[in-house]
Amino acid sequence: MAGLRVEIEAMADPLLQAQGLVKRFGALTASDRLSLGVEVGELHALIGPNGAGKTTAIAQLAGELNPDQGAIRFAGQDVTNLPIERRCRLGLTRSYQITSLFRGFTALENVALAVQARAGHSFRFWRPAGRDRRLIEPAEALLDRLGLGGRAGIRAADLAHGEQRQLEIAMALATGPRLLLLDEPMAGMGPEESRAMVALLSRLKGEVSILLVEHDMDAVFALADRVTVLVYGRAIATGTPAAIRADPNVRAAYLGEEGA
Amino acid sequence: MLDSAAGSRRLGRPTRAGLVTLAGLVLLALLPPAMLALDQPFYISLGTRVVIYAIAAVSLDLILGYGGLVSFGHGAFVGAGAYVVGILFVHAQDGSPVLSWPVAIAGSEAALVAWPAAVVVSALLALAIGAICLRTRGVAFIMITLAFAQMLFFLFVSLPRYGGEDGISLWWRNTLPGVDLGDDVWFYYLCLALLVGFTLLCRRLVGSRFGRVLRAAKENERRLRALGVAPYPYQLTAFVIAGAGAGLAGALLANQTGFVSPSPLHWTSSGEIMVMVILGGLGTLVGPILGAAALLVLEETLSTYTSHWGLVLGPILILVVLTAKRGLYGWLAGRDRGDG
Protein backbone atom coordinates (compact mmCIF):
# COMPACT_ATOMS: atom_id res chain seq x y z
CA MET A 1 0.00 0.00 0.00
CA ALA A 2 2.67 2.40 1.06
CA GLY A 3 4.67 1.55 -2.03
CA LEU A 4 1.68 2.16 -4.22
CA ARG A 5 0.97 5.53 -2.63
CA VAL A 6 4.59 6.60 -3.19
CA GLU A 7 4.25 5.59 -6.79
CA ILE A 8 1.04 7.53 -7.24
CA GLU A 9 2.58 10.59 -5.67
CA ALA A 10 5.65 10.26 -7.84
CA MET A 11 3.48 10.14 -10.90
CA ALA A 12 1.42 13.08 -9.74
CA ASP A 13 4.49 15.16 -8.97
CA PRO A 14 6.08 16.72 -12.01
CA LEU A 15 9.83 16.07 -12.40
CA LEU A 16 10.48 19.78 -12.49
CA GLN A 17 8.15 22.40 -11.05
CA ALA A 18 8.88 26.11 -11.14
CA GLN A 19 6.46 28.21 -9.12
CA GLY A 20 6.04 31.96 -9.46
CA LEU A 21 9.56 32.80 -10.68
CA VAL A 22 10.32 36.49 -10.81
CA LYS A 23 13.58 37.83 -12.23
CA ARG A 24 14.16 41.52 -12.80
CA PHE A 25 17.08 43.23 -14.50
CA GLY A 26 16.60 46.85 -13.53
CA ALA A 27 13.31 47.98 -15.03
CA LEU A 28 13.01 44.88 -17.20
CA THR A 29 11.05 41.96 -15.78
CA ALA A 30 12.50 38.94 -17.57
CA SER A 31 10.46 36.40 -15.61
CA ASP A 32 7.07 37.54 -14.35
CA ARG A 33 5.46 35.06 -11.92
CA LEU A 34 6.50 32.26 -14.24
CA SER A 35 5.21 28.80 -13.37
CA LEU A 36 6.14 25.76 -15.37
CA GLY A 37 6.05 22.01 -14.89
CA VAL A 38 7.81 19.21 -16.78
CA GLU A 39 6.42 15.70 -16.33
CA VAL A 40 8.56 12.59 -16.23
CA GLY A 41 9.29 11.39 -19.75
CA GLU A 42 7.76 14.37 -21.49
CA LEU A 43 9.27 16.63 -24.11
CA HIS A 44 8.10 20.06 -23.13
CA ALA A 45 8.77 22.95 -25.46
CA LEU A 46 9.17 26.53 -24.30
CA ILE A 47 8.45 29.02 -27.06
CA GLY A 48 7.97 32.73 -27.27
CA PRO A 49 8.99 35.77 -29.29
CA ASN A 50 12.52 37.19 -29.00
CA GLY A 51 13.05 38.80 -25.61
CA ALA A 52 10.27 36.77 -23.98
CA GLY A 53 12.73 35.59 -21.32
CA LYS A 54 13.27 32.00 -22.46
CA THR A 55 17.02 31.97 -21.88
CA THR A 56 16.58 33.69 -18.50
CA ALA A 57 14.06 31.02 -17.55
CA ILE A 58 16.49 28.23 -18.51
CA ALA A 59 19.30 29.90 -16.58
CA GLN A 60 17.15 30.00 -13.43
CA LEU A 61 16.00 26.42 -13.82
CA ALA A 62 19.59 25.24 -14.37
CA GLY A 63 20.92 27.25 -11.45
CA GLU A 64 23.05 29.88 -13.16
CA LEU A 65 20.75 32.72 -12.14
CA ASN A 66 18.92 33.05 -8.85
CA PRO A 67 15.28 34.10 -9.11
CA ASP A 68 14.28 37.18 -7.12
CA GLN A 69 11.15 35.34 -6.03
CA GLY A 70 9.63 31.92 -6.50
CA ALA A 71 10.67 28.33 -5.96
CA ILE A 72 11.98 25.47 -8.09
CA ARG A 73 11.50 21.82 -7.19
CA PHE A 74 13.26 19.02 -9.00
CA ALA A 75 12.61 15.30 -8.39
CA GLY A 76 10.81 16.05 -5.15
CA GLN A 77 13.53 18.31 -3.78
CA ASP A 78 13.68 22.08 -3.36
CA VAL A 79 16.60 23.17 -5.55
CA THR A 80 15.88 26.92 -5.56
CA ASN A 81 19.13 27.74 -3.79
CA LEU A 82 21.35 24.97 -5.15
CA PRO A 83 24.21 26.05 -7.45
CA ILE A 84 24.33 24.68 -10.99
CA GLU A 85 26.95 22.01 -10.25
CA ARG A 86 24.78 20.47 -7.50
CA ARG A 87 21.67 20.50 -9.69
CA CYS A 88 23.63 18.81 -12.45
CA ARG A 89 24.59 16.02 -10.10
CA LEU A 90 20.88 15.56 -9.26
CA GLY A 91 20.24 15.02 -12.97
CA LEU A 92 19.25 18.48 -14.17
CA THR A 93 21.60 19.38 -17.02
CA ARG A 94 21.56 22.21 -19.51
CA SER A 95 23.09 22.81 -22.90
CA TYR A 96 23.91 26.21 -24.33
CA GLN A 97 22.47 28.26 -27.16
CA ILE A 98 25.88 29.72 -27.94
CA THR A 99 28.11 26.69 -28.16
CA SER A 100 30.05 26.33 -24.94
CA LEU A 101 32.79 23.73 -25.25
CA PHE A 102 36.31 23.14 -24.06
CA ARG A 103 37.71 24.36 -27.35
CA GLY A 104 41.28 23.18 -26.84
CA PHE A 105 40.13 19.66 -25.93
CA THR A 106 39.38 17.03 -28.55
CA ALA A 107 35.77 15.95 -29.06
CA LEU A 108 36.55 12.78 -27.15
CA GLU A 109 38.14 14.69 -24.28
CA ASN A 110 35.12 16.97 -24.04
CA VAL A 111 32.75 14.05 -23.58
CA ALA A 112 35.21 12.10 -21.41
CA LEU A 113 35.34 15.09 -19.07
CA ALA A 114 31.56 15.00 -18.75
CA VAL A 115 31.72 11.24 -18.07
CA GLN A 116 34.39 11.94 -15.47
CA ALA A 117 32.23 14.62 -13.85
CA ARG A 118 29.48 12.08 -13.38
CA ALA A 119 31.86 9.43 -12.01
CA GLY A 120 32.36 11.24 -8.71
CA HIS A 121 35.15 13.49 -7.50
CA SER A 122 38.24 14.08 -9.64
CA PHE A 123 40.85 14.05 -6.90
CA ARG A 124 42.66 11.33 -8.80
CA PHE A 125 46.17 12.47 -9.36
CA TRP A 126 48.07 9.58 -10.85
CA ARG A 127 46.42 7.54 -13.60
CA PRO A 128 46.43 9.20 -17.01
CA ALA A 129 42.87 10.24 -17.85
CA GLY A 130 43.73 10.01 -21.54
CA ARG A 131 44.09 6.23 -21.30
CA ASP A 132 41.33 5.51 -18.78
CA ARG A 133 38.94 3.05 -20.44
CA ARG A 134 36.20 3.84 -17.94
CA LEU A 135 36.17 7.36 -19.39
CA ILE A 136 36.99 6.63 -23.00
CA GLU A 137 34.53 3.82 -23.68
CA PRO A 138 31.34 5.61 -22.55
CA ALA A 139 32.56 8.77 -24.28
CA GLU A 140 33.17 6.93 -27.56
CA ALA A 141 29.76 5.29 -27.33
CA LEU A 142 28.11 8.70 -26.96
CA LEU A 143 30.10 10.20 -29.83
CA ASP A 144 29.04 7.28 -32.03
CA ARG A 145 25.44 7.78 -31.04
CA LEU A 146 25.58 11.48 -31.93
CA GLY A 147 27.22 10.68 -35.27
CA LEU A 148 30.60 12.05 -34.23
CA GLY A 149 32.36 8.69 -34.06
CA GLY A 150 34.87 9.59 -36.76
CA ARG A 151 35.65 12.98 -35.23
CA ALA A 152 36.78 11.88 -31.77
CA GLY A 153 40.36 13.12 -32.18
CA ILE A 154 39.49 16.55 -33.62
CA ARG A 155 39.80 19.60 -31.39
CA ALA A 156 36.38 21.01 -30.52
CA ALA A 157 37.40 24.39 -31.95
CA ASP A 158 38.08 22.76 -35.34
CA LEU A 159 34.70 20.99 -35.63
CA ALA A 160 32.02 22.34 -37.96
CA HIS A 161 29.25 24.33 -36.32
CA GLY A 162 26.70 21.55 -36.55
CA GLU A 163 29.17 19.08 -35.09
CA GLN A 164 29.81 21.41 -32.19
CA ARG A 165 26.06 21.51 -31.50
CA GLN A 166 26.00 17.71 -31.51
CA LEU A 167 28.96 17.63 -29.17
CA GLU A 168 27.03 19.93 -26.81
CA ILE A 169 24.26 17.35 -26.62
CA ALA A 170 26.71 14.47 -26.20
CA MET A 171 28.29 16.22 -23.22
CA ALA A 172 24.93 16.98 -21.64
CA LEU A 173 23.90 13.33 -22.08
CA ALA A 174 27.17 12.11 -20.58
CA THR A 175 26.27 13.66 -17.23
CA GLY A 176 23.43 11.12 -16.98
CA PRO A 177 20.57 13.62 -16.86
CA ARG A 178 16.98 12.94 -15.88
CA LEU A 179 15.96 16.25 -17.40
CA LEU A 180 17.76 18.00 -20.23
CA LEU A 181 17.35 21.75 -20.61
CA LEU A 182 18.13 22.34 -24.27
CA ASP A 183 18.54 26.00 -25.20
CA GLU A 184 17.98 26.25 -28.95
CA PRO A 185 19.92 23.15 -29.99
CA MET A 186 19.29 23.95 -33.66
CA ALA A 187 20.53 27.54 -33.53
CA GLY A 188 22.60 28.34 -36.61
CA MET A 189 22.14 24.92 -38.18
CA GLY A 190 21.45 24.27 -41.84
CA PRO A 191 18.28 22.40 -42.86
CA GLU A 192 20.12 19.09 -43.18
CA GLU A 193 21.69 19.36 -39.73
CA SER A 194 18.39 20.50 -38.23
CA ARG A 195 16.65 17.42 -39.57
CA ALA A 196 19.32 15.22 -38.03
CA MET A 197 18.89 17.00 -34.68
CA VAL A 198 15.09 16.56 -34.79
CA ALA A 199 15.60 12.87 -35.49
CA LEU A 200 18.02 12.64 -32.57
CA LEU A 201 15.66 14.43 -30.18
CA SER A 202 12.78 12.17 -31.14
CA ARG A 203 15.02 9.17 -30.36
CA LEU A 204 15.91 10.68 -26.97
CA LYS A 205 12.26 11.28 -26.19
CA GLY A 206 11.00 8.90 -23.54
CA GLU A 207 14.52 8.01 -22.48
CA VAL A 208 15.10 11.36 -20.83
CA SER A 209 12.72 14.21 -20.06
CA ILE A 210 13.45 17.33 -22.09
CA LEU A 211 12.62 21.00 -21.77
CA LEU A 212 13.30 22.42 -25.21
CA VAL A 213 13.66 26.09 -26.07
CA GLU A 214 13.43 26.40 -29.83
CA HIS A 215 12.59 28.91 -32.53
CA ASP A 216 11.94 26.37 -35.25
CA MET A 217 8.15 25.93 -35.00
CA ASP A 218 8.06 22.91 -37.30
CA ALA A 219 10.48 21.15 -34.98
CA VAL A 220 8.57 22.18 -31.87
CA PHE A 221 5.21 20.99 -33.13
CA ALA A 222 6.68 17.76 -34.44
CA LEU A 223 8.44 16.87 -31.20
CA ALA A 224 6.65 18.36 -28.21
CA ASP A 225 4.17 16.60 -25.97
CA ARG A 226 3.26 19.92 -24.42
CA VAL A 227 4.13 23.51 -25.24
CA THR A 228 4.35 26.53 -22.95
CA VAL A 229 4.19 29.96 -24.54
CA LEU A 230 6.15 32.73 -22.89
CA VAL A 231 5.41 36.40 -23.58
CA TYR A 232 7.08 39.22 -21.64
CA GLY A 233 8.30 36.72 -19.05
CA ARG A 234 4.85 35.25 -18.37
CA ALA A 235 3.50 31.86 -19.35
CA ILE A 236 0.33 32.77 -21.22
CA ALA A 237 -0.64 29.23 -22.20
CA THR A 238 0.38 25.61 -21.69
CA GLY A 239 -1.07 22.68 -23.58
CA THR A 240 -0.73 20.15 -26.35
CA PRO A 241 0.59 21.45 -29.65
CA ALA A 242 -2.94 21.29 -31.10
CA ALA A 243 -4.40 23.26 -28.20
CA ILE A 244 -1.64 25.85 -28.45
CA ARG A 245 -2.20 26.27 -32.16
CA ALA A 246 -5.89 26.86 -31.50
CA ASP A 247 -5.42 29.19 -28.53
CA PRO A 248 -6.57 32.70 -29.53
CA ASN A 249 -4.27 34.42 -27.01
CA VAL A 250 -1.29 32.62 -28.42
CA ARG A 251 -2.27 33.45 -31.97
CA ALA A 252 -2.62 37.09 -31.07
CA ALA A 253 0.57 37.35 -29.05
CA TYR A 254 2.88 35.16 -30.99
CA LEU A 255 1.87 32.93 -33.83
CA GLY A 256 0.07 35.82 -35.46
CA GLU A 257 3.22 37.86 -35.43
CA GLU A 258 5.11 35.02 -37.02
CA GLY A 259 2.52 34.66 -39.75
CA ALA A 260 2.39 38.37 -40.51
CA MET B 1 47.29 17.21 -26.26
CA LEU B 2 47.23 14.36 -23.82
CA ASP B 3 47.13 11.72 -26.45
CA SER B 4 50.18 12.98 -28.29
CA ALA B 5 52.27 12.89 -25.13
CA ALA B 6 50.99 9.47 -24.17
CA GLY B 7 51.52 8.23 -27.71
CA SER B 8 55.14 9.24 -27.90
CA ARG B 9 55.84 7.45 -24.64
CA ARG B 10 54.00 4.34 -25.65
CA LEU B 11 55.69 3.96 -29.01
CA GLY B 12 59.14 4.80 -27.67
CA ARG B 13 59.88 6.50 -31.00
CA PRO B 14 61.81 9.69 -30.45
CA THR B 15 59.64 12.71 -31.14
CA ARG B 16 61.10 16.18 -31.51
CA ALA B 17 59.67 17.12 -28.11
CA GLY B 18 61.15 14.01 -26.54
CA LEU B 19 64.56 14.77 -28.05
CA VAL B 20 64.50 18.33 -26.69
CA THR B 21 63.75 17.00 -23.22
CA LEU B 22 66.44 14.33 -23.47
CA ALA B 23 69.05 16.78 -24.75
CA GLY B 24 68.27 19.20 -21.93
CA LEU B 25 68.56 16.46 -19.36
CA VAL B 26 71.92 15.27 -20.76
CA LEU B 27 73.23 18.85 -20.77
CA LEU B 28 72.20 19.37 -17.16
CA ALA B 29 73.64 16.02 -16.11
CA LEU B 30 77.01 16.71 -17.81
CA LEU B 31 77.37 20.28 -16.59
CA PRO B 32 79.50 19.68 -13.44
CA PRO B 33 82.14 17.39 -15.02
CA ALA B 34 82.33 19.66 -18.07
CA MET B 35 82.81 22.79 -15.96
CA LEU B 36 85.35 21.10 -13.71
CA ALA B 37 87.27 19.99 -16.80
CA LEU B 38 87.19 23.57 -18.11
CA ASP B 39 88.18 24.82 -14.65
CA GLN B 40 85.07 27.00 -14.47
CA PRO B 41 83.47 25.86 -11.18
CA PHE B 42 81.52 29.12 -10.98
CA TYR B 43 79.16 27.83 -13.66
CA ILE B 44 78.20 24.92 -11.41
CA SER B 45 76.72 27.38 -8.96
CA LEU B 46 74.97 29.20 -11.82
CA GLY B 47 73.66 25.82 -12.94
CA THR B 48 72.39 25.13 -9.44
CA ARG B 49 70.52 28.44 -9.42
CA VAL B 50 69.00 27.54 -12.80
CA VAL B 51 67.84 24.16 -11.48
CA ILE B 52 66.37 25.66 -8.30
CA TYR B 53 64.53 28.43 -10.13
CA ALA B 54 63.32 25.81 -12.60
CA ILE B 55 61.55 24.02 -9.74
CA ALA B 56 59.82 27.27 -8.81
CA ALA B 57 58.93 27.97 -12.46
CA VAL B 58 57.53 24.47 -13.04
CA SER B 59 55.40 24.84 -9.92
CA LEU B 60 54.07 28.20 -11.11
CA ASP B 61 53.32 26.73 -14.53
CA LEU B 62 51.05 24.17 -12.89
CA ILE B 63 48.63 26.93 -11.87
CA LEU B 64 49.50 29.55 -14.50
CA GLY B 65 49.90 27.41 -17.61
CA TYR B 66 47.51 24.57 -16.87
CA GLY B 67 45.13 26.27 -14.47
CA GLY B 68 45.06 29.71 -16.11
CA LEU B 69 45.48 31.30 -12.68
CA VAL B 70 47.73 34.33 -13.06
CA SER B 71 49.36 34.30 -9.64
CA PHE B 72 51.66 37.29 -9.26
CA GLY B 73 52.74 36.28 -5.79
CA HIS B 74 54.56 33.04 -6.32
CA GLY B 75 57.69 34.52 -4.75
CA ALA B 76 55.85 34.42 -1.42
CA PHE B 77 56.15 30.65 -1.30
CA VAL B 78 59.79 30.63 -2.42
CA GLY B 79 60.51 33.19 0.29
CA ALA B 80 58.56 31.27 2.91
CA GLY B 81 60.51 28.10 2.14
CA ALA B 82 63.79 30.01 2.40
CA TYR B 83 62.80 31.63 5.70
CA VAL B 84 61.81 28.28 7.23
CA VAL B 85 65.36 27.03 6.54
CA GLY B 86 66.83 30.32 7.77
CA ILE B 87 64.76 30.54 10.96
CA LEU B 88 65.41 26.91 11.89
CA PHE B 89 69.12 27.57 11.31
CA VAL B 90 69.16 30.69 13.52
CA HIS B 91 67.54 28.82 16.40
CA ALA B 92 69.81 25.81 15.98
CA GLN B 93 72.77 28.19 16.33
CA ASP B 94 71.68 29.92 19.53
CA GLY B 95 69.81 26.97 21.00
CA SER B 96 66.57 28.86 21.55
CA PRO B 97 63.27 27.30 20.55
CA VAL B 98 61.47 28.50 17.41
CA LEU B 99 58.20 28.11 19.28
CA SER B 100 57.59 27.04 22.86
CA TRP B 101 53.81 27.19 22.78
CA PRO B 102 51.44 25.53 21.82
CA VAL B 103 54.03 23.02 20.61
CA ALA B 104 57.73 23.14 21.28
CA ILE B 105 59.73 23.46 18.06
CA ALA B 106 63.51 23.50 18.22
CA GLY B 107 65.84 24.83 15.57
CA SER B 108 67.50 22.43 13.17
CA GLU B 109 70.25 22.23 10.61
CA ALA B 110 69.13 18.85 9.28
CA ALA B 111 67.91 18.93 5.69
CA LEU B 112 65.52 16.09 6.48
CA VAL B 113 63.82 18.38 9.01
CA ALA B 114 64.19 21.81 7.47
CA TRP B 115 63.28 20.98 3.87
CA PRO B 116 60.07 19.07 4.57
CA ALA B 117 59.18 21.83 7.05
CA ALA B 118 59.72 24.40 4.30
CA VAL B 119 57.46 22.43 1.95
CA VAL B 120 54.72 22.02 4.57
CA VAL B 121 54.79 25.64 5.71
CA SER B 122 54.67 26.90 2.12
CA ALA B 123 51.82 24.53 1.35
CA LEU B 124 49.84 25.75 4.37
CA LEU B 125 50.55 29.34 3.42
CA ALA B 126 49.32 28.59 -0.10
CA LEU B 127 46.20 27.01 1.37
CA ALA B 128 45.42 30.15 3.34
CA ILE B 129 46.28 32.60 0.55
CA GLY B 130 44.67 30.47 -2.16
CA ALA B 131 41.47 29.98 -0.17
CA ILE B 132 40.97 33.75 -0.27
CA CYS B 133 42.44 34.63 -3.68
CA LEU B 134 40.58 31.91 -5.59
CA ARG B 135 37.28 33.57 -4.73
CA THR B 136 38.30 36.28 -7.18
CA ARG B 137 39.12 36.13 -10.87
CA GLY B 138 41.04 38.06 -13.48
CA VAL B 139 42.76 41.28 -12.48
CA ALA B 140 41.50 41.01 -8.90
CA PHE B 141 43.21 37.64 -8.58
CA ILE B 142 46.50 39.04 -9.91
CA MET B 143 46.36 41.98 -7.55
CA ILE B 144 45.41 40.06 -4.42
CA THR B 145 48.13 37.41 -4.90
CA LEU B 146 50.59 40.27 -5.42
CA ALA B 147 49.30 41.98 -2.26
CA PHE B 148 49.79 38.88 -0.11
CA ALA B 149 53.38 38.49 -1.28
CA GLN B 150 54.09 42.15 -0.58
CA MET B 151 52.56 41.82 2.89
CA LEU B 152 54.98 38.99 3.64
CA PHE B 153 57.85 41.05 2.24
CA PHE B 154 57.14 43.92 4.62
CA LEU B 155 56.52 41.51 7.49
CA PHE B 156 60.00 40.04 7.18
CA VAL B 157 61.63 43.42 6.56
CA SER B 158 60.24 44.46 9.94
CA LEU B 159 61.43 41.41 11.90
CA PRO B 160 64.81 42.33 13.43
CA ARG B 161 65.07 38.90 15.10
CA TYR B 162 65.51 37.45 11.63
CA GLY B 163 67.72 40.15 10.24
CA GLY B 164 65.07 42.53 8.89
CA GLU B 165 66.14 43.89 5.53
CA ASP B 166 69.59 42.34 5.89
CA GLY B 167 68.25 38.82 6.23
CA ILE B 168 69.89 35.76 7.75
CA SER B 169 73.32 34.39 6.92
CA LEU B 170 73.59 30.63 6.85
CA TRP B 171 77.18 29.85 7.85
CA TRP B 172 76.97 26.44 6.23
CA ARG B 173 74.46 24.35 4.35
CA ASN B 174 71.95 21.99 5.93
CA THR B 175 73.23 18.53 6.73
CA LEU B 176 72.08 15.34 5.09
CA PRO B 177 73.30 11.90 6.20
CA GLY B 178 75.53 10.33 3.55
CA VAL B 179 75.62 13.38 1.29
CA ASP B 180 77.99 16.31 1.60
CA LEU B 181 75.67 19.20 0.76
CA GLY B 182 78.59 21.57 1.24
CA ASP B 183 80.11 20.12 -1.92
CA ASP B 184 78.81 22.11 -4.88
CA VAL B 185 78.73 19.13 -7.22
CA TRP B 186 76.79 16.95 -4.78
CA PHE B 187 74.41 19.78 -4.05
CA TYR B 188 73.89 20.40 -7.76
CA TYR B 189 72.98 16.79 -8.44
CA LEU B 190 70.63 16.67 -5.48
CA CYS B 191 68.80 19.78 -6.76
CA LEU B 192 68.69 18.27 -10.26
CA ALA B 193 67.21 15.04 -8.89
CA LEU B 194 64.55 17.04 -7.05
CA LEU B 195 63.76 19.01 -10.21
CA VAL B 196 63.38 15.84 -12.27
CA GLY B 197 61.23 14.23 -9.56
CA PHE B 198 59.00 17.26 -9.18
CA THR B 199 58.59 17.66 -12.95
CA LEU B 200 57.64 13.98 -13.35
CA LEU B 201 55.14 14.38 -10.52
CA CYS B 202 53.59 17.41 -12.25
CA ARG B 203 53.48 15.48 -15.50
CA ARG B 204 51.38 12.77 -13.87
CA LEU B 205 49.21 15.43 -12.28
CA VAL B 206 48.38 17.31 -15.47
CA GLY B 207 47.54 14.09 -17.31
CA SER B 208 45.31 12.73 -14.55
CA ARG B 209 41.61 13.29 -13.99
CA PHE B 210 42.61 16.05 -11.60
CA GLY B 211 44.71 17.73 -14.27
CA ARG B 212 41.93 17.48 -16.80
CA VAL B 213 39.54 19.30 -14.48
CA LEU B 214 42.20 21.93 -13.83
CA ARG B 215 42.67 22.54 -17.57
CA ALA B 216 38.94 22.46 -18.18
CA ALA B 217 38.45 25.21 -15.57
CA LYS B 218 40.93 27.32 -17.52
CA GLU B 219 39.21 26.63 -20.85
CA ASN B 220 35.60 27.17 -19.80
CA GLU B 221 34.74 27.44 -16.14
CA ARG B 222 31.05 28.03 -16.74
CA ARG B 223 30.66 24.86 -18.74
CA LEU B 224 32.58 22.86 -16.16
CA ARG B 225 30.05 23.94 -13.55
CA ALA B 226 27.22 23.02 -15.88
CA LEU B 227 28.72 19.51 -16.04
CA GLY B 228 28.44 19.27 -12.26
CA VAL B 229 31.98 20.19 -11.21
CA ALA B 230 32.81 23.16 -8.98
CA PRO B 231 36.38 24.16 -9.89
CA TYR B 232 37.30 25.79 -6.57
CA PRO B 233 38.54 22.72 -4.62
CA TYR B 234 40.61 21.58 -7.60
CA GLN B 235 42.13 24.99 -8.19
CA LEU B 236 42.90 25.32 -4.49
CA THR B 237 44.59 21.92 -4.45
CA ALA B 238 46.72 22.90 -7.47
CA PHE B 239 47.57 26.19 -5.75
CA VAL B 240 48.73 24.29 -2.65
CA ILE B 241 50.84 21.84 -4.69
CA ALA B 242 52.41 24.77 -6.55
CA GLY B 243 53.09 26.52 -3.24
CA ALA B 244 54.75 23.38 -1.87
CA GLY B 245 57.00 23.12 -4.94
CA ALA B 246 57.98 26.77 -4.61
CA GLY B 247 58.70 26.20 -0.92
CA LEU B 248 61.08 23.40 -1.81
CA ALA B 249 62.81 25.74 -4.28
CA GLY B 250 63.06 28.34 -1.51
CA ALA B 251 64.69 25.88 0.88
CA LEU B 252 67.23 24.93 -1.80
CA LEU B 253 67.83 28.56 -2.71
CA ALA B 254 68.64 29.43 0.91
CA ASN B 255 71.22 26.64 0.92
CA GLN B 256 72.61 27.65 -2.45
CA THR B 257 73.13 31.33 -1.63
CA GLY B 258 73.95 30.78 2.06
CA PHE B 259 71.65 33.68 2.71
CA VAL B 260 67.96 34.32 3.39
CA SER B 261 66.56 37.77 2.75
CA PRO B 262 63.16 39.29 1.98
CA SER B 263 64.11 39.76 -1.68
CA PRO B 264 62.48 36.54 -3.02
CA LEU B 265 59.23 37.81 -1.49
CA HIS B 266 59.42 41.03 -3.47
CA TRP B 267 57.05 41.33 -6.39
CA THR B 268 59.94 41.63 -8.84
CA SER B 269 61.00 38.09 -7.90
CA SER B 270 57.47 36.81 -8.52
CA GLY B 271 57.61 38.60 -11.85
CA GLU B 272 60.93 36.98 -12.69
CA ILE B 273 59.51 33.48 -12.13
CA MET B 274 56.53 34.40 -14.29
CA VAL B 275 58.87 35.60 -17.05
CA MET B 276 60.68 32.25 -16.91
CA VAL B 277 57.40 30.40 -17.42
CA ILE B 278 56.21 32.61 -20.28
CA LEU B 279 59.62 32.75 -21.96
CA GLY B 280 59.98 28.97 -21.75
CA GLY B 281 56.43 28.06 -22.71
CA LEU B 282 53.17 28.25 -20.78
CA GLY B 283 51.40 24.97 -20.27
CA THR B 284 54.46 22.84 -21.00
CA LEU B 285 56.50 21.40 -18.16
CA VAL B 286 59.87 21.38 -19.89
CA GLY B 287 59.34 24.98 -21.05
CA PRO B 288 59.70 26.65 -17.64
CA ILE B 289 62.99 24.80 -17.13
CA LEU B 290 64.25 26.18 -20.45
CA GLY B 291 62.93 29.58 -19.43
CA ALA B 292 64.76 29.53 -16.12
CA ALA B 293 67.98 28.56 -17.88
CA ALA B 294 67.57 31.17 -20.60
CA LEU B 295 66.74 34.02 -18.25
CA LEU B 296 69.48 33.36 -15.69
CA VAL B 297 72.16 32.65 -18.30
CA LEU B 298 71.21 35.76 -20.28
CA GLU B 299 71.27 37.87 -17.13
CA GLU B 300 74.65 36.47 -16.23
CA THR B 301 76.29 36.95 -19.63
CA LEU B 302 74.71 40.30 -20.44
CA SER B 303 75.61 41.72 -17.03
CA THR B 304 79.30 41.06 -17.72
CA TYR B 305 79.07 43.39 -20.73
CA THR B 306 76.78 46.09 -19.44
CA SER B 307 74.89 47.05 -16.33
CA HIS B 308 71.97 47.98 -18.59
CA TRP B 309 71.39 44.34 -19.50
CA GLY B 310 67.65 44.82 -19.03
CA LEU B 311 67.69 46.88 -22.22
CA VAL B 312 68.79 43.83 -24.19
CA LEU B 313 66.73 41.30 -22.29
CA GLY B 314 63.47 43.23 -22.75
CA PRO B 315 63.44 43.11 -26.58
CA ILE B 316 64.43 39.41 -26.54
CA LEU B 317 61.47 38.69 -24.29
CA ILE B 318 59.10 40.64 -26.50
CA LEU B 319 60.42 38.84 -29.56
CA VAL B 320 59.87 35.40 -28.03
CA VAL B 321 56.40 36.22 -26.73
CA LEU B 322 55.34 37.68 -30.07
CA THR B 323 56.73 34.97 -32.31
CA ALA B 324 56.38 31.75 -30.32
CA LYS B 325 53.05 30.52 -29.09
CA ARG B 326 54.62 28.23 -26.55
CA GLY B 327 57.79 30.13 -25.89
CA LEU B 328 61.23 28.60 -26.32
CA TYR B 329 59.83 25.12 -25.91
CA GLY B 330 57.43 25.78 -28.78
CA TRP B 331 60.34 26.90 -30.95
CA LEU B 332 62.38 23.83 -30.19
CA ALA B 333 59.68 21.18 -29.99
CA GLY B 334 57.27 22.37 -32.65
CA ARG B 335 54.42 24.78 -32.33
CA ASP B 336 51.41 22.83 -31.19
CA ARG B 337 53.15 20.31 -29.08
CA GLY B 338 52.40 20.36 -25.39
CA ASP B 339 54.05 17.90 -23.10
CA GLY B 340 51.13 17.50 -20.78
Primary descriptors:
heterodimer, A: 260 residues, alpha/beta, Rossmann fold, 2 domains, 6-stranded mixed sheet, 4-stranded antiparallel sheet, 10 helices, 10 strands, 40% helix, B: 340 residues, mainly alpha, two-stranded antiparallel sheet, two-stranded antiparallel ribbon, 14 helices, 3% strand, globular
Report on the architecture of this protein:
The complex is a heterodimer of chains A (260) and B (340). With 260 residues, chain A is of the alpha/beta class. Chain A folds into two domains: 2-91 and 177-259, P-loop containing nucleotide triphosphate hydrolases (Rossmann fold), CATH 3.40.50.300; 101-176, no CATH class. Chain A is 40% helix and 23% strand. Chain A has ten helices and ten strands. Chain A has helices at residues 2-12, 54-62, 84-90, 107-118, 133-145, 161-174, 191-204, 217-223, 241-246, 248-259, and strands at residues 16-25, 28-38, 43-47, 69-74, 77-78, 92-94, 179-183, 209-213, 226-231, 234-239. In chain A, the strands form two sheets. A six-stranded mixed β-sheet of chain A has the order 6-7-8-3-9-10, sandwiched between helices. In chain A, helix 4 (107-118) packs parallel to helix 6 and helix 5 crosses helix 6 (161-174). The longest helix of chain A is centred in the middle third of the chain and has 14 residues, at 161-174. Chain A is globular. Chain A starts with a helix and ends with a helix. The model of chain A is unreliable at 1-10 (pLDDT under 50). Chain B is mainly alpha-helical and 340 residues long. Chain B has a domain at 43-275. Chain B has helices at residues 2-11, 16-37, 42-66, 75-94, 111-133, 138-157, 184-207, 209-219, 221-226, 232-257, 267-280, 286-305, 310-323, 327-333; strands spanning 97-99, 105-106, 168-169, 259-260. In chain B, the strands form two sheets. Chain B has a two-stranded antiparallel sheet with strand order 1-2. A two-stranded antiparallel ribbon of chain B has the order 3-4. The longest helix of chain B is centred in the C-terminal third of the chain and has 26 residues, at 232-257. Mean pLDDT of chain B is 91; it is low at 1-10. Classes of the chains: A alpha/beta (260), B mainly alpha (340).
